């Protein structure tokens, strides 16, 4: 869809001439007075406003500019006048105008100015959206476990660098959140963060989505379009599910990373790229390169700074913190009074395996909060699947892509299941003997030292119940 321009000017002849010049690239609407223009802004939500400095009957365009700012402070306004002066230009820009141009502009310069104003609007809206997300309760890495602390340290370390980052990890672990944290802590924080899901792009439009296209470049290209790399200029582009890019698109991306430049589809003008690239995947890119499904040179370009986001199974100590965070967040969003969660319900959450990781935990919490209504959350409000022997019947894994990976995962899962059984056995034994390790170890015929080693290996603990 073409951008919508609003022309506010009392000179109908000038409006007609300008529309004639711009109609191929933009949709244009017009108003002869400030009041008419303000009404159209509310009704039509234009992308750019072209405002005459001197409207009819002595109305000053600067007064209209101030009113536009109150309606939409992200809306770029370009001042146009016959009475150009540096003083009024400076005053207009101080009030909030994007720029200033005479009524007899060079057409190429004029279009360039409009394009720049559109870029600014996109950047401001994205920055505002990001700011709102940052101030939500779940906008940072929540957790105090060793894996969570290591992840936070890597984010802080890599944020200060401008190299590419490759974020890996299972689905639902929070890879996009990591990318947003890097952006927020980087020197590019005041520039756009543009996120794009590579798996969601139609294969025949990938190049257009990433790099843009010129009018007439292909069937349906009725106007020029900026790609994500242009929109993200000066900021960061986040390429989620990077493994889903086909080999042709991988070649184009590799060139941008190597040469820092690209052309729009159908274009001949080379555009310089000033964008930091962060990519993410839940697949094994090394295996994909071995099988010829992902370019090895692109893999090395992307993985300069690798971050692996741990699964929730590796962050058991953070589950209670995350659960309470999501309870508070859901209560706030749903306008429900704050809730507590029972010890038994929390125990079920901690012992579950969470194949869907943090996203799955959040979904379960949302359900529990809504099912509980005005009550605190108990095990009765949790999804029944959380009760399957504390998760022992379910061994969720990422589907392996090679025999070697399958064999490694199988051994890991067998080991995890064994440790869980040991943990339940030892904790039950300690409960029977009220935490007395000497009596418990004697009961099963091993010494205290080996009993302690078994506890440490499987993470068994004894918590004395309050009487």
TL;DR of this structure?
This protein is of the alpha/beta class. The chain contains 18 helices and 14 strands.
Features:
5-stranded parallel β-sheet; 47% helix; Rossmann fold; Helicase, Ruva Protein, domain 3; alpha/beta; 4 domains; 14 strands; 18 helices; 467 residues
How does this model look, in words?
The chain has 4 domains: 4-119, Response regulator (Rossmann fold, 3-Layer(aba) Sandwich), CATH 3.40.50.2300; 136-308, P-loop containing nucleotide triphosphate hydrolases (Rossmann fold, 3-Layer(aba) Sandwich); 312-391, Helicase, Ruva Protein, domain 3, CATH 1.10.8; 403-458, Arc Repressor Mutant, subunit A (Orthogonal Bundle). It is an alpha/beta fold. The radius of gyration is 29 Å and the shape is elongated. The protein is built from 18 helices and 14 strands. The strands form 4 sheets. It has a 5-stranded parallel beta sheet, with helices on both faces.
Strand order of the largest sheet: 2-1-3-4-5
Enumerate how many helices there are, as a single number: 18
Domain module count = 4
Shape assignment: elongated
| CATH homologous superfamily label of the largest domain | P-loop containing nucleotide triphosphate hydrolases
Subunit organisation of the chains: single chain
Overall radius of gyration: 29 Å
Q: What CATH architecture of the largest domain would you give?
A: 3-Layer(aba) Sandwich
Strand fraction: 5-15%
Count of extended strands: 14
CATH class of the largest domain: Alpha Beta
Helix content: 40-55%
Q: What's the mean pLDDT score?
A: 85
Q: How far is the first residue's CA from the last residue's CA?
A: 69 Å
Low-confidence stretches: 133-138, 389-396
Protein structure class: alpha/beta
How would you sum up the major sheet? 5 strands, parallel
Q: In the CATH scheme, what's the topology name of the largest domain?
A: Rossmann fold
């Amino acid at each position: 869809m073409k951008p919508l321009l609003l022309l506010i000017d009392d000179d109908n002849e000038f409006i007609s001439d300008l529309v004639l010049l711009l109609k191929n690239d933009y949709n244009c609407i017009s108003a002869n007075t400030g009041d008419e223009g303000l009404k159209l802004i509310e009704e039509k939500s234009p992308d750019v406003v072209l405002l005459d400095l001197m409207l009819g009957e002595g109305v000053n365009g600067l007064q209209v500019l101030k009113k536009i700012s109150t309606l939409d402070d992200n809306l770029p306004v370009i001042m146009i006048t016959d009475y150009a002066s540096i003083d009024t230009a400076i005053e207009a820009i101080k009030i909030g105008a994007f720029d200033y141009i005479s009524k007899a502009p060079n057409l190429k310069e004029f279009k360039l100015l409009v394009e720049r104003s559109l870029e600014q609007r996109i950047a401001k809206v994205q920055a505002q959206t990001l700011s709102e997300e940052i101030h939500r309760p779940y906008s940072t890495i929540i957790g105090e476990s060793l894996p969570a602390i290591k992840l936070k340290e890597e984010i802080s370390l890599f944020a200060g660098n401008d190299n590419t980052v490759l974020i890996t990890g299972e689905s639902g672990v929070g890879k996009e959140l990591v990318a947003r944290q890097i952006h927020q802590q980087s020197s590019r924080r005041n520039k756009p963060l543009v996120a794009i899901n590579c798996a969601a792009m139609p294969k025949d439009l990938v190049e257009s989505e990433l790099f843009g296209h010129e009018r007439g470049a292909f069937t349906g290209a009725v106007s020029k379009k900026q790609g994500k790399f242009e929109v993200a200029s000066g900021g960061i582009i986040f390429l989620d599910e990077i493994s889903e890019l086909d080999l042709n698109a991988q070649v184009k991306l590799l060139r941008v990373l190597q040469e820092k430049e690209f052309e729009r589809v159908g274009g001949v003008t080379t555009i310089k790229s000033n964008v930091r690239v962060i990519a993410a995947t839940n697949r094994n890119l090394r295996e994909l390169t071995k099988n010829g499904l992902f370019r090895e040179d692109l893999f090395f370009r992307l993985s300069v700074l690798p971050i692996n986001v741990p699964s929730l199974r590796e962050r058991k100590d953070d589950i209670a913190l995350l659960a309470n965070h999501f309870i508070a967040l859901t209560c706030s969003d749903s306008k429900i009074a704050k809730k507590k969660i029972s010890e038994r319900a929390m125990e079920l959450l901690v012992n579950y395996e969470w194949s869907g990781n943090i996203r799955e935990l959040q979904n379960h919490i949302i359900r529990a909060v809504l099912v509980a209504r005005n009550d605190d959350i108990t095990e009765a409000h949790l999804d029944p699947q959380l009760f399957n022997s504390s998760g022992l019947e379910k061994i969720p894994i990422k589907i392996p892509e090679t025999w070697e990976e399958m064999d490694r995962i199988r051994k890991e899962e067998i080991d995890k299941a064994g440790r869980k059984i040991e943990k339940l056995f030892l904790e039950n034994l300690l409960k029977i003997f009220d935490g007395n390790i000497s009596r418990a170890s004697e009961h099963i015929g091993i010494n205290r030292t080996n009993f302690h080693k078994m506890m440490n290996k499987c993470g068994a603990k004894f918590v004395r119940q309050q009487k």
